[in-house]
Amino acid sequence: MEIPLFYIILVLAPFLACALAGLPGLSTLSPGNSLAVENEDDYLVSPNGTFTGGFYKVGTNAYCFSIWFTNSADKTVVWMANRDRPVNGKQSRLTLHDSGNLVLLDADGSIVWSSNTVSSAAVEVRLLETGNLVLINREKNVVIWESFDFPTDTLLASQRFTRNTTLVSMRSRGTYLLGFYNLKFDDNNVLDLLYNGPLLSSVYWPNSVSTIFYNGRTPYNSSRIAVLNEIGSFKSSDNFRFNASDYGVGPKRRLTLDYDGILRLYSLDESTGSWKLSWRPGGLDSCLVQGLCGVNGICTYNPLPTCTCPTGFKRNNPSDWSKGCSPLFNLTCDPAELDFVELHKTDYYGFDLNTYQAGIALETCREKCLNDCKCKGFGYALDGKGQCFPKGALRNGYRNPSNRMIMHIKVPKGMVKSIEETEAVTTNVLDCSTGQLVLENNSPDDRKTNKNGYMKYLIAFAASVAGIEMICTGLGWWYVFRNHADNEESVDAGYIALALGFKRFTYSELKRATKNFKKEIGKGGFGTVYKGVLDDDRVVAVKRLEGVLQGHAQFWAEVSVIGKINHRNLVKLWGFCAENEHKILVYEYVENGSLDKILFFDSPKVLGWDQRYNIAVGTAKGLAYLHEECLEWVLHCDVKPQNILIDSHFEPKVADFGMSMLFKDGNDRGFSKVRGTRGYLAPEWMMNLKIDAKADVYSYGIVLLELLTGKSASGLESATSLDTECSDLVELTTESIREEELEKIIDPKLKDKYNKEQLKRMVEVALLCVKDDRSTRPAMSKVVELLMEMMSENQMKILKRSTD
């Protein structure tokens, strides 16, 4: 007899409460309660202890309310509420008011920061295991405020980066004030790094000299959203993507815009508490970060990035290189009183005057600058092209051994010295290696206090673990004799639901929902689909996968990608099951079944022209989202009517997307054998070429021809056709166009009720999609644009009704 889980929890509850009571820190903060800066035990802890939220020392008697990685050696901060307004080390409080507002108060009672929230219902503050600090309406269990919406300099796994958010670097190493470097989406929908200094703002990555497209980006997706997922993959709506060098499930990661303007991905080694660099932008030289050494300053390598002032200049601020250098002289406009100091292998990027010329001699370039009061100096390229770059300002200076530029800085006569005599100014080395990531500068007493607190935490944690182990041992007999199909996995289902955003079902749940997998509603190359009803009365489609060889960890990672994809023309994945050999996906149930059953077989439902055109548009929108818009770009690899489901409003929903991820075999092509269905396969499948989105475009073109003709490309007979086998749809359509007899190919079920202009457009689009040369096929977003141009007013109303 299986003991109900409810009774187990009831028996364990008192013991677990006693064991967990010894853990330091709070799991929640309730209305009317506060965290005090003086009390070292006043802090929030995430459920598994990965993150801690509390007061963090940023200077002498100065604190910020922060979130940091608990197990990092230097308490690495990932979020700060008041980075520009530290509070006093005594009598400051973080308080949750009864009104629902979370407020940070300084010692004098003044409000330094608040969440600016109001709630008539009961609320509480929690620190989630993701590192997200949330304010929750307890009655509705709804988040009304979260720190993930207001990042500082760091993006965490599963934290979405949007058009409304910006990463802002620290001012300098160990100085948490707002810095001058930003990561944000620009007005062209492209993710940029930019220098946002006191006097000017300019993008320094991606390289503005190259086009957006040369850098592999696209400005056409206006959703402006990006995310770093749990397995170390970053993807953005502008087509920028990268993977961590230690890609996979395991390490805790953070994407940080460091004080030197470089965006870096770090992975935590929890055994040592140190951080390992696992990605940084390719081609972004540290000395090419704009504003790094301020006006007139020069960045060089010694051997790390180092700032210096050129001859005749002095450093403005001994502790802040962003303030740059000032000249020790005053310039006149009299050419007779001026000369130039030469800096070899040096350039000042940007700020070229419009007198730039190519194909001129060095002396000519020199004379032009001497006679121009606005010219502060000029660069002359040693590339044989005679390029002269007169400068209106000396900013973004850098020296590099491979640089073929000589910089000439205008100075008064008598100050000329060779570059070898240039005095290097003592500088702060601009380094972000692991050893240099110091996040606080506490006194010895402070470090001793922190160490004692940390030891208390370890002792309490060890004691609680021991207590829990004793309880588990006492209940061991139950685990030995129970017959539970889930005993192989130790991952808690609730945690998986939180991390992946949808539910992990047990095999017994799905067996019960489908009445032992009784009602089969579909079968394909990836498995069999059954209709089921969950305990909450939701009707679902349950797909039992066949031939998945991935381990559970990899399967969860891939399923998490599919589960986050959400579009009204894509079938929604509600959950999954991974127990022993069972790997199952749970989808929303779509009422009218698949398109092929309505289109090709005897069915009481007949698709009219408007419905067919809307199905063509909706399917294109779903595929365009997969290819170009969603956070995890996915190839379908099996677009066909059997994988296009029709809901009660005759709105299409593409199914089976993401299967190529679950069944891929890991080689460079992504597949070692053909995926898809005969009749819909693009030529590149047979030519052993690398498969990309254009393979889906080809298959979609075939589906368009099927919508027009009512004939199946896969060899199935049309219910209305007397042919013994299906004709070649592409050849048939091409011949009809040549003979100007398009009406011959129209499905007889339509009874000549169709829009001739739309018919012509659908045929044109279909034939573009099925071009043998994939480079000439349009992207799915272009297909959507072409079809939408011809939508009638009535079709738009149908589309609106289905959306509502």
From TrEMBL:
Residues 20-148 form the Bulb-type lectin domain. The chain crosses the membrane at residues 6-26, 457-480. Its EC number is 2.7.11.1. The keyword Transcription does not apply. It is an enzyme of class 2 (transferase). InterPro entries: Bulb-type_lectin_dom, Bulb-type_lectin_dom_sf, EGF, Kinase-like_dom_sf, Pan_app, Prot_kinase_dom, Protein_kinase_ATP_BS, S_locus_glycoprot_dom. It is found in: Membrane. Residues 283-319 form the EGF-like domain. It comes from the Eukaryota. Belongs to the protein kinase superfamily. Ser/Thr protein kinase family. This is Receptor-like serine/threonine-protein kinase.
